[in-house]
Design brief:
The structure is a single chain. By secondary structure, this protein is α+β, with helices and mostly antiparallel strands. Among the domains are: about 60 residues, no CATH class; about 80 residues, Immunoglobulins (Immunoglobulin-like, Sandwich). It contains one helix and 18 strands. About 10% of the residues are buried. The C terminus is likely disordered.
Length: about 250
């Protein structure tokens, strides 16, 4: 006969292989209790008897714990480039937290501090890798892993707003600086191949127009000198002839 009870509750009572409210296996001493609630948490007496005399008697503490349902990680860069990683869970009772980096325990050269009140750790500036938080109690265990990169300092202006802060290098989207400055041709600024082609055509048109104007004026000047020379010679011949007629 096996009996597990306290002053008000009978959880296990096995008499002639008839079990009440539980399933018990005498070979390994394990039993499963059905329909438990938090109110069943208490100290119980476990008795083994032959139905007349008690052969063994022990005091057991029964604790009802809910399993861990999920785990979440949150990370941020601090003022000097350190990384804070926080771990939170839903559900579960009497939880214990543990941390690993790339599948191993953290060392003093990597770990700056541990805060057990908010379940967070602070990693030193040079530390990066796969950080995992494991949450467990007596009935369950759940782990969550996240890749933590190094922090970089951003000091720039975005849309008129000055930004100076540490951010994770892997997912930085603040102030992505332009690496290639714009090129100026004539009076247009090029930022794409299409604009380059348009500005090149415009510049060529301007050059050819200037060449055409120069050629035109040169031709006009030459034609003017030729016409002037032609008008001067007949007048000379006429004067020469007049002089000859006077001498005669």
């Amino acid at each position: 006969m096996y009996k597990l009870s306290n002053k008000t509750t009978l959880i296990l009572n096995v008499i002639n292989n008839k079990q009440i409210r539980s399933l018990f296996n005498p070979s390994d001493g394990k039993f499963r209790v059905n329909n438990l609630s938090r109110n069943d948490s208490a100290e119980y007496k476990f008795e083994i008897s032959d139905g007349i005399n008690i052969k063994e008697k022990r005091a057991l503490r029964l604790t009802i714990q809910a399993p861990v349902s999920s785990v979440r990680l949150a990370s941020e860069c601090l003022s000097q480039g350190e990384k804070r990683v926080s771990c939170s869970s839903e559900g579960g009772d009497s939880l214990q937290y543990s941390w690993t980096l790339d599948g191993r325990s953290l060392t003093d050269t990597e770990l700056l501090s541990v805060n057990t009140e908010n379940n967070s750790i602070t990693l030193k500036q040079h530390v990066s890798g796969a950080v995992a938080c494991s949450v467990e109690n007596n009935v369950s265990q759940v782990s969550k892993e996240e890749e933590i990169s190094n922090c970089v300092f951003i000091n720039c202006s975005s849309n008129g707003t000055q930004i100076s802060q540490w951010v994770f290098a892997a997912n930085n989207t603040l102030c992505v600086e332009q690496t290639t400055p714009p090129t100026t041709i004539s009076e247009c600024s090029t930022v794409a191949d299409h604009s380059l082609l348009v500005c090149g055509v415009r510049a060529a048109v301007v050059v050819f127009a200037l060449i055409g104007i120069a050629v035109y004026f040169a031709w006009k000047n030459k034609d003017y000198k030729k016409a002037e020379g032609s008008a001067y010679r007949p007048e000379r011949e006429h004067q020469d002839e007049s002089v000859v007629m006077v001498e005669m």
